[in-house]
Amino acid sequence: MWPAEPKSTDYCRAAHRLGVPGRLEGVARKSETMAAKPRIIVVGGGLGGLWATLRIAEQGVPVDLFSLFPVKRSHSCCAQGGINAVLDVKGQDDSIWQHIVDTIKGGDYLADQPPIKNLCEEAPGLIRTYDRMGVTFSRTPEGIMDQRLFGGVKNKRTAFAGATTGQQLLYTVDEQVRYHESLGTVTKYEGWDFLSLVLDDNGVARGVTAMELSSSKVQAFKADAVIIATGGLALTYGRSTMSSNSTGAPAARVYQQGAKCANNEFIQFHPTGMPGHDKNRLMSEACRGEGGRIWVPRKKGDNRDPRDIPEEERFYFLEEWYPAYGNTVPRDVASRAICRAVRHMGLGLNGQDVVYLDLTHQPREFLERRLGGILEMYRTFAGEDPCERPMKIFPATHYSMGGIWVDFEKDSQTGAMARISPRNHATSVPGLYACGECDFAYHGANRLGANSLLSASFSGRVAGDSAVAYIKNLSRTGNGTPDSAYQSEQKRQEEINSGIMTCDGGENAFTLHHQLGDLMRECVFVERDNEGLDKALQGIKQLKERSRKISLDHKSNWGNQSLSWARQIQDMIVLAEVIAKGARLRDECRGSHYKAEFELKVPEGKFEGDPEYEKYKAKWKANNDKWLKHTIATHTENGPEISYKEVDISVLPPTKPRDYR
Amino acid sequence: MAEKFIHFKIKRQDGPNAYAYWEEFKMPYSPAHNVVSCLMYLREHPVNINGDRVEPVVWDSNCMEEVCGACSMIINGTPRQACSALIDELEQPITLEPMTKFPLIRDLMVDRSRMFEALMKIKAWIPVDGSWDIHRHAPLISPNEQSVRYIFSRCMTCGCCMEACPQFHPDSKFIGPAPIGQAKLHNSHPTGKFFKEDRLHVLMDEGGITDCGNAQNCIKVCPKDIPLTDAIGEIGRQTTMQWLRDMFVK
Ligand SMILES: Cc1cc2nc3c(=O)[nH]c(=O)nc-3n(C[C@H](O)[C@H](O)[C@H](O)COP(=O)(O)OP(=O)(O)OC[C@H]3O[C@@H](n4cnc5c(N)ncnc54)[C@H](O)[C@@H]3O)c2cc1C
Ligand code: SF4
Ligand code: SF4
Ligand code: FES
Asked: What predicted TM-score, i.e. pTM, was given to this entire model?
């Protein structure tokens, strides 16, 4: 009965982090004996991982939850803007169908459509659940949840909690999981680095190995299913909008053990990043939603104070080029437009990679109320007040649409994904599930703003249900797998560690990361061409070689942060190759992937019915026949092997090119 | 022009049982650096002021935008977030020390598990039957109530307030200011208050609200400007009421 008394609150998580020896042995014994009862391992405690954990724990199945740090500090807390769900509370006749259409079209049709149907249909219920769990959503005077406008759509559909929506959502699920932790159903391993899957002779996932970050000790853990929810990979680009741990390394690890990846060349570059030393902090899309205008001085090299430049000498290029949407065009369109204005027209401020994002025409009180936290961040890190002076921004690496390939079961009656099926969110490795930003589903070639807090939460819930369905069907549980499988995987990982610890090759793991980032931002960025991508692939090969010769300045095992980083940089390089190879082979423009050479230009001033437009449309169709396919990457010793897979477009087949004029 | 430097004095300790020592570092200046971006530079170039190559400084950070709570440390004597500590606003040499109220892991990294355990103790969650949709929202909440709750729900468990509190330390049982703020947050929710009594009983017990000496240090250091003393005052009143109610029920 709820509420129940906590049972094992004295279970000391500190012991894992501190590596107190007696306690650690206790943990090891615990996980061995417990394997008799089915249990599930979740790797990652962002929104995706926490939802999966919650869902599994609610069904009474024990969960071991792994995270690099206390889950409350996961990257999901950085999301500012909001979460999409059609509540239709703004008198705009918003509909779930419209949300489906926006998501599919926004992704340039490159996502399997049945799961998108579920995502949008279940979004309102998910938001109501979040509301019941106590998320501090912003309210209307009537006391109901407010909704705001976000990029790429015409309706107010985005629920938000001040300017820290991700933080508020994350904390709320964290609290619910803590309740299950108090019941003893959830055991957290915070401060552990997931290293690999333990696979049985049939290639089925039967557990994981992980390294305790404080002591560098490697240990194997048994499970009947594993869910990976380790978030994005933007650190393959060096500086990005993401947290310093969003390296994608765990995804690269399961990829190298046989999980297929898909569509990795599709990386979203957020148009409004704040260029910086350590990261390119994000100025939320909400700034554009709340009236922010992007501009540069019309005259090249005009370096007057922005406030002294009169209206008619400012070039609001988004408003001029895309009158229907203006400043709220989708992210890819905005990022390219900024690059066009800066790199092709030479209009960047002081000739640099910078443009203005201007809110100064809005009343301060309005801005503080709607964007308080975001503006505060700009003030803190740039030392200037965005209510007084336009902000300086440039596109930054932000989100990975692609990722670990996941399956779904189609419900023939509804045409959507089946409500519950062990196939939903299953990877190509049996027993391994993926959810959250590390999977490839829902967003196709480009993600709509505020759709990924939704997909991370929703997919976590689905993956949790699927994993439970899967273990119910299992003929033998993890303890049927011989101990030797765990021991040999643990040994393999220990050997990798000692290899790195004793290597004297002279390469610095942190320098390699900068160099990888520089290469990716130069050659695999907003605009791509095959020459540059060949250069990237060459460069990556060299980096890969060098990453085998890392010497660490940390010599001791205790608190050795460099060891974990050295392993992560090796894995980031593997992912970078998948990204660059997919991009090299895809000779077209779709969503965030843009190669000027292959652009199909909309004939200017021509619309449907006009023969010139129809000719363009025919070309667009032919291109779709060739390229409307998932890129599938399979790991081999010689790098990724690329193949292609049909996209399920049964909900809304493409009939017209995307047109934001 | 003389080359500009950023000068650090860092308190280091190789492990929980090792001796602490100070080590100085100098790195090239450039504008818009913060303490974490400097530590990132120093881990790539771990050379101390004597020119010796040493093991890189160990610290915690994630978000780099003052929202995850990871990077708390004592900077020039004050507990605060390192990622938002801009070099241009700090007096040099900049001293970095680990927080002292939590078990040390290494150098600037500490273990704040005790704070998460406190959240469990006070049942810092809203009771729901389950994570499924029941086709209803939470009860209506006015924008005013929302904005008060929002202020408290931004607590990122960074521990600065706990570090500053004279009553909270390894040998005391005091639960500390941050969890009291969270008790207020959850007691103020229309359904979260169903647990109010449980939370208050925890805070009326040993290590609860009466251990607060009202020094008000906590509120001065909170990077999120959370009005902790308001929470302490209100929880104080709530516990008094609860005490009276308990008397009558008995
Ligand atoms: C600045 C910013 C703002 C954003 N704003 C919005 C927004 O307004 N709306 C929106 O919809 N989306 C937004 N997004 C996107 C959204 O925040 C993310 O896509 C989403 O939070 C990802 O959640 P996740 O659960 O997949 O991963 P994360 O939250 O990144 O969690 C990853 C987890 O994996 C764990 N992990 C990683 N590696 C390992 C390892 N080796 N071993 C063990 N554990 C590991 C980590 O500890 C962590 O717990 C934003 C993103 C950024 C960068
Ligand atoms: S007011 Fe109470 S909680 Fe705050 S610092 Fe003082 S003793 Fe600690
Ligand atoms: S109340 Fe403030 S100082 Fe204390 S843990 Fe929360 S955010 Fe940090
Ligand atoms: S790194 Fe997240 S608060 Fe500083």
From this structure: 0.93
* Chain centroid to CA B154: 11
- Rounded mean pLDDT of A535-557? 97
Say if residue B244 is in the same domain as residue B143.
yes
Digit-coded pLDDT (tens) for A614-644: 999 999 999 999 999 999 999 999 999 999 9
* Domain encompassing residue B93: 5-110
Quote the tokens at residue A439: 């999977």
Residue A5 has pLDDT above 50, yes or no: no
Q: Which ligand is nearest to the CA of A436?
A: 1
Is there a single domain that holds both residue B90 and residue B152? Answer: no
Q: How far is CA A190 from CA A212, A295, A489, A553, in A?
A: 9, 45, 21, 25
Partner B contacted by A283 (CB < 8 A): no
Q: Does A381 touch chain B (CB under 8 A)?
A: yes
Same domain, B41 and B155: no
B131 and A72: CB-CB below 8 Å? no
Domain count, chain B: 2
Statement to judge: residues B99 and B143 lie in one domain: no
Find the DSSP H helices in A107-219: 113-132, 165-183
What pLDDT was estimated at residue A34? 44
Residues B118 and B216 in one domain: yes
Domains of chain A and CATH, by start: 9-76+167-269+399-482 (3.50.50.60), 83-164 (no CATH), 271-396 (3.90.700.10), 492-646 (1.20.58.100)
Residue A479, pLDDT score = 62
**Catalytic (active site) residue A546:** no
Alpha helical stretches, state H, A1-45 = 13-18, 21-34
| Segment A167-219, tens digit of pLDDT | 999 999 999 999 999 999 999 999 999 999 999 999 999 999 999 999 999 99
Task: List CB contacts of B212: < 8 A, sequence separation 6 or more.
Answer: B167, B174, B177, B180, B232
Residues A127-177 pLDDT 10s:
999 999 999 999 999 999 999 988 668 899 999 998 899 999 999 999 999
**A-to-B residue pairs, Cβ atoms closer than 8 angstroms:** 225
Picking from A14, A279, A553, the nearest residue to B111 by CB comes out as A14
In angstroms, how far is CA A10 from the centroid of its own chain? Answer: 35
Mutate to test the interface with B, among A118, A190, A378, A561 (most CBs of B within 10 A): A561
Among partner residues B36, B114, B154, which is closest to A278 by beta-carbon distance? B36
Q: Is residue B201 part of a domain?
A: yes
B residues 156-215 closer than 8 Å to A (CB): 156-157, 186, 189, 191-192, 194-195, 198
CA of B232 to the centre of ligand 2 (A): 8
Place of tokens 């771990």: B46
For residues B182 and B224, membership in a common domain is answered with yes
Cα torsion at B153, B157, B159, B162 (round to 10°)? 60
- Indicate whether this complex's ipTM tops 0.95: yes
CA of A330 to the centre of ligand 1 (A): 21
